[in-house]
Specification:
Layout: H1 54-57, H2 64-80, H3 90-99, H4 112-118, H5 130-146, H6 153-172, E1 204-205, E2 211-217, E3 223-229, E4 236-237, E5 245-249, E6 255-260, E7 263-268, E8 275-279, E9 286-288, E10 293-296, E11 305-308, E12 315-316, E13 328-334, E14 340-347, E15 350-360, E16 366-371, E17 374-379, E18 383-388, E19 391-398, E20 403-404, E21 409-411, E22 418-421, E23 427-430
Length: 431
């Protein structure tokens, strides 16, 4: 069967039964009906004539080698467009199956031996297992694909489809393996209008890594959020985002959250009118989780809260440690997997004494990831980035244990972003 998308599918409906013994025989002998629903046994004919093995046609005992015969017949028909055994009546077809040899000349030369062995009359000389047939096809396919003839283009598409089905079934049962992505050097010129200082200091990158959102000063002098694809030079202003700060993306990249004028808002990445989610007197960052909640720092002297992505009453998430003289929790990040949230806790105004912590969304247990740093961010290279005393640091982080693997290395600051290998297992970043 061919699907509307052009995909080749081999369908097996099993054995069909005649409801009554007197049911009329099909006028097409190639689709002759099944003769019985009784279990396959010697003396009983079972199946469709054109695809029966010789032992089936003779009413002898059958086993899996009869299926190998049927596979060979189907493959022969797919490659040539003709039936291997033909006749005007069912009896003629059965006689051809028992006595005649199929014409192998129409088959591609490199497949003749494999299919011929599927169609041997004596099951003892046939392929023993269908896995052996697949191995034989695997051995002949690569060489043939390298130089297919024009007349063989369609047959090879069909063969590839058959192999893809077999390989696809095998891959279903293989464990998934994470693919390591190479690091990239990607300088990005945001243009002279970019407003990245003071209260407009952060940039957000979309989850798929294709877009940036940042503050940009427009022709009227107002600062709005601007969305830019990395494959384009121009950024698009998002209307209604005047005064926005600390933007962040939704997990699917379709929405952008931000703080402005004492409110937490969101706007579609396609544009439109922003909607208010809740009050945010002094917004200091947020992160959008896949569970439909946003973890946010709504005030400078408060703990973190969770807000439904469509708006609602903020619910407390963290608590300030009064005995530890904590005065603020800021810049949260929902970590990959959605099990914990990374954030900064400190004694204002000295961020050199800050601590980067992580709190479980389920148990509310808090772990100290690193003391002496702020604005922690876990990145896809499995590093924790953070700032200390005007310098950006990077270190390997164990996401499961919420701990750093190694000590810290740093680099001086510049205006370009560069990854640079240091000692084995180390990375430093320049920004």
């Amino acid at each position: 069967m061919i699907t509307p998308a052009g995909m080749v599918k081999v369908l097996d409906f099993g054995l069909a039964a005649i409801a009554e013994a007197s049911a009329p025989e099909s006028t097409d002998p190639s689709v002759s009906p099944t003769f019985t629903m009784s279990p396959t046994r010697a003396g009983m004919i079972l199946g469709t004539a054109a695809y029966m093995s010789p032992e089936q046609a003779c009413g002898k005992k059958v086993d899996k080698r009869a299926d190998i015969w049927a596979f060979g017949v189907v493959l022969y028909e797919m490659l040539t467009g003709k039936q291997a055994f033909k006749g005007e009546t069912v009896s003629d077809i059965l006689a051809a199956v028992i006595k005649e040899e199929p014409a192998l000349d129409p088959l591609p030369a490199h497949l003749r031996a494999t299919i011929e062995k599927c169609l041997r009359k004596d099951p003892r000389t046939r392929w023993r297992d269908i896995g052996d047939v697949r191995m034989a096809l695997d051995e002949t396919l690569p060489a043939a694909v390298a130089r297919p003839g024009k007349s063989q283009a369609i047959p090879w598409i069909i063969i590839t489809a058959l192999l893809a089905v077999a390989l696809g079934l095998a891959l279903v049962f293989l464990p998934a393996r994470q693919v390591e992505r190479p690091q990239m050097l990607l300088p990005v010129d945001l243009g002279p209008g970019a407003a990245l200082r003071g209260t407009f200091s952060t940039i957000a990158i979309s989850p798929d890594g294709t877009r940036l959102v940042f503050g940009q000063k427009g022709a009227d002098g107002a600062v709005r959020l601007a969305l830019r694809r990395l494959d384009q030079m121009q950024a698009t202003e998002l209307q209604g985002t005047e005064g926005a700060r600390d933007p962040f993306f939704s997990p699917d990249g379709q929405w952008i959250g931000f703080g402005t004028a004492g409110k937490l808002k969101k706007v579609s990445a396609q544009g439109g009118t922003p909607s208010i989610l809740c009050d945010a007197p002094n917004f200091r960052g947020a992160s959008w989780g896949e569970d439909g909640f946003i973890v946010a720092a709504l005030d400078t002297r408060a703990a973190l809260t969770r807000i439904p992505e469509n708006g609602g009453n903020p619910q407390p998430f963290t608590e300030l440690d009064k005995e530890g003289h904590e005065t603020t929790h800021r810049w949260p990040q929902v970590l990959p997997g959605g099990k914990a949230v990374l954030f900064t806790t400190n004694v204002v105004p000295f961020f050199e004494t800050a601590t980067i912590a992580a709190q479980s969304l389920k148990s509310k247990r808090r772990d100290v990831v690193w003391k002496g740093g702020s604005f922690g961010r876990y990145v896809s290279s499995r590093h924790l980035l953070f700032v200390y005393n005007g310098t950006l640091f990077a270190a390997r982080m164990d996401l499961d244990r919420l701990r750093l693997w190694t000590s810290i290395r740093s680099s001086t600051c510049s205006r370009t972003v560069r990854w640079k290998a240091c000692k084995p297992g180390w990375r430093s970043i320049r920004v």
